[in-house]
Design a protein that fits this description.
Blueprint (H helix, E strand, L loop, with lengths): L2 H12 L17 E2 L2 E3 L13 E7 L18 E8 L11 H24 L2 E7 L9 H14 L2 E13 L5 E13 L18 H12 L2 E4 L6 H9 L3 E3 L8 E5 L25 E5 L17 E5 L9 E3 L7
Antiparallel strand pairs: 1-2, 2-9, 3-4, 3-11, 4-12, 5-7, 5-8, 6-7, 6-10, 11-13
Helix pairs in contact: 2-5
Amino acid sequence: MDSAELSFRLRREFDGLPDDLDEEPLENGYGSYGEFKLVGHGKITSDMCGKYLSFKGCIRTDLHDLVTLDGKDYRNKVFVRVIHHSCDKPSCPVCFKSGWAVREAAKIEARLAEASKRFGVVEHIVASVPLRDYGLKFESLRAKVVKALFDRGVVGGVLIFHGFRYNLRQCWYWSPHFHVLGIILGGYGCRDCGKACGACSGFEGRTRRCFEKDGYIVKVLDKRITVFGTAWYQLNHSSLKVGVVRFHVATWFGVCSYRKLKVTVEKRKDLCPICQSDLLKLHYFGVKPIVKVKSESGYVASFFDDLVAADGSPNWCEAHSGSYE
């Protein structure tokens, strides 16, 4: 990993975001239409949501001998992450982005990693619904989208439902579409092709011909940085069906469906962004105040600090089992 890439990842880390987003996040706004609303616009699940639990970090300062291209000096610095309680519910305004979306994105990443070994490269695809189908029930709408994807050679993947889009007037409006992390039969060879698409057998030729028949606009977007980052970003402004306790925002189809692809999902490892060592539970012995409460101001998800204070006393050390915070 070079210094430029590491600088990007560290900036994401300090903002409390995944380090590999494909796009800049939109500002949160409110959107609802009929049975659907944006994730993160329900009630807070409990008083524990977002409450401080502990510190985790990496005190391997001998491995943090780094100065990045933008001048950030991480030499002899401890990496610290503030851990908070999460209910992991998509409706919770406190936990949906840093809890539920992170967990779901990790599951998607693990499942698609196995699928890509068997079937090919995962692409980021958007399937937009024609106006005539806006009033369909969700199940019927999803079925028509899956058929449109199959017709274009997308053999499987995960669908993330978006009921809304965001316009220049800074408001959400109803415009149902699905973001898809999917696999195209034979791969997507059109990205660097300058040929006309009309009679082409590639994806772009197929999707144009299919559009004339079904009216669904299906596009392959730019190359992803990672599956996790794309999934996380798309999940954190996806849509929920109101009143359905276990409504699944992300659903699987084709060769990636639960019936056809069996995958054991391992928990995503919590690693130091510099040296990739496992993060351990830490104790803080310093004297400066550290904000632990999630809020719009003052809260820092993660940061670097000196291992030892100016007077030689320790700021941070590993917390052993059974010890107190």
